[in-house]
Write a structure and sequence with these properties.
Structural class: mainly beta
Largest sheet: 11 strands, antiparallel
Strand content: 35-45%
Radius of gyration: 21 Å
Order of helices and strands: HHEEEEEEEEEEEEEEEEEE
Oligomer: single chain
Shape: globular
Distance between the termini: 80 Å
Length: 291
């Protein structure tokens, strides 16, 4: 055996036995904080720090933990999600009992297969089961961000490594709209959902999946302006606000903790603020009454 070959093998063996080999991004993303208890914020946590993607990682089905097209990037202190590929930006840490604040505005670019359809994204929370456990996504609940439907709540189930479905659910008080879709109504019929969507209270029954859709009662800001999304997760209770107004609510969320994800789903999106507040230190301007 040539001396050079012996030397390379010796270096490799030393690295393995002393733990000096660096992990791949894949194992790092999956492994970091995987065994830690969900974190309950004791102070304001900046999930997006305005500079880079520290504390976060990307996942897209086609490229896994690589982002060759910069679907997720930071420019001039703003997080930019191009929407070009489906996937998400995910916290490495799991969280529970927090008040989330996110401020977004839509960009102009849209991509197939949603190029002419309503701009779409979402905040997935209480994520669990590993990356891709729900196909493109991670099994989780979702605060939907879609034109005309900002504040819808979804249950996005997945499967484990053996293909068995995860057990998850959310209970909401609802009434059915004209088309039989469940819409949140405080004091309405209590129903438990193991999958699917609970519309925010004012979702237009004539909603169409077309670019630029805006309903008569929409609370989100007009296109090009910033919209403030808030999500209060207090134990197994979930409250969704849009621009300070309560638009949806759920109880008995299972699971009641997990990772937090931002979706890339065919539309350009800009994020200038993404943070967690302790429940007893929620922003003072989040108060709102149910219409």
């Amino acid at each position: 055996m040539p001396d050079a070959t012996r030397h390379r093998e010796a270096v490799l063996l030393l690295a393995i036995t002393t733990g000096l080999l660096t992990c791949t991004q894949s194992s790092y993303a999956l492994g970091e904080d995987a065994d830690k208890e969900p974190h309950r914020p004791a102070e304001v946590l900046q999930l997006f720090n305005g500079r880079d993607l520290a504390g976060l990682y990307t996942w897209m089905p086609e490229t896994k933990y690589d982002d060759p097209h910069d679907v997720f990037s930071v420019r001039d202190g703003v997080l930019q999600i191009s929407g070009e590929a489906y996937g998400y930006l995910c916290t490495k840490q799991a969280y529970r009992d927090y008040h989330l604040v996110l401020e977004f505005r839509w960009g102009q670019r849209t991509w197939e297969p949603r190029k002419t359809r309503s701009r779409d994204s979402g905040i997935m929370f209480h994520g669990f089961g590993g990356d891709g456990s729900a196909g493109t996504w991670m099994a989780s609940h979702e605060y939907q961000i879609i034109e005309g439907g900002v504040g819808d709540l979804l249950v996005v189930p997945g499967t484990d490594a053996d293909g068995q479905p995860h057990s998850m659910s959310l209970t909401c008080e609802v009434e059915e709209d004209r088309d039989g879709e469940p819409c949140w109504k405080r004091g309405g019929e209590r129903r438990t959902f193991s999958r699917g969507r609970i519309n925010w209270y004012g979702r237009d029954p004539d909603w169409e999946d077309v670019l630029g859709f805006r309903g008569a009662q929409d609370v989100e800001s007009p296109h090009g302006q910033w919209t403030r999304c808030e999500l209060t997760c207090d134990g197994d209770q979930v409250i969704a606000r849009v621009n300070g107004q309560i638009v949806n609510e759920g109880y008995e969320a299972s699971p009641a903790a997990g990772k937090i994800l931002l979706q890339s789903e065919g539309a350009e999106l800009f994020i200038r603020r993404w943070e967690l507040h302790p429940l007893d230190q929620a922003p003072s301007n989040d108060a709102a009454s149910v219409p």
